Amino acid sequence: MSEYYGTGRRKTAVARVFLRQGNGRITVNGRDFPDYFRGILASVQALEPLKATGTAGRYDALITVAGGGPSGQADAIKLGLSRALLEVDPNFRAKLKQGGHLTRDARIVERKKYGLHKARRAPQYSKR
Q1: Using an 8 Å Cβ cutoff, are 26 and 63 in contact?
Q2: Using an 8 Å Cβ cutoff, are 4 and 19 in contact?
Q3: Which of 29, 71, 72, 127 has most Cβ atoms within 10 angstroms of its Cβ?
Q4: Residues in Cβ contact with 124 at an 8 Å cutoff, skipping those fewer than 6 apart
Q5: pLDDT at residue number 39
Q6: Which residue segment(s) compose the domain that 55 sits in?
Q7: Given this model, what pLDDT does residue 1 score?
Q8: Tens digit of pLDDT per residue, the chain (128 long)?
């Protein structure tokens, strides 16, 4: 039985996705997918690559994710799933690319500069 792997990253989150033939069971850090992402809207979009390729019930996914928050982790899982599905069948590329699932979102938090409160927020101006 073969195993397929894909890495996904978003903000500071990194997801490692392992796909195996199975019945559609998805585990994140040892917990079931709905239990891990309780009520988070972005988690629904994380499984979009499986729906786009029509492989929703055919593979079990074992996912380890670290860093970032729930939203970044969900997006990292989405990219990891897409890359793993490309290993399963390279013909999925057109469908995944059309849905925008293969593009790494490179936006990260801007660094804080000295003399400022945040990256761009300056101290309050006082005339007197």
Answers
A1: yes
A2: yes
A3: 72
A4: none
A5: 81
A6: 3-98
A7: 67
A8: 689 999 999 999 999 999 999 999 999 999 999 999 988 787 889 999 999 999 988 999 999 999 999 999 999 999 999 999 999 999 999 999 999 999 999 999 999 999 999 999 999 999 99
In a domain, 126, yes or no: no
Residue 93 inside a domain? The answer is yes
Q: Using the structure block, give the residue that is written with the tokens 């397929």.
A: 4
Q: Is residue 21 part of a domain?
A: yes
Compute the distance between CA of residue 46 and CA of residue 34 in angstroms, rounded to an integer.
11
Q: In the numeric block, which tokens belong to residue 99?
A: 């849905």
Amino acid type, 75: D
In a domain, 30, yes or no: yes
CATH of the domain at 87: 3.30.230.10
* Overall number of domains in the chain: 1
Q: Is 61 exposed, middle or buried (0-12, 13-18, 19+ CB in 10 A)?
A: buried
Amino acid code (one letter) for 89: D
**In the block, residue with structure tokens 């069948």:** 89
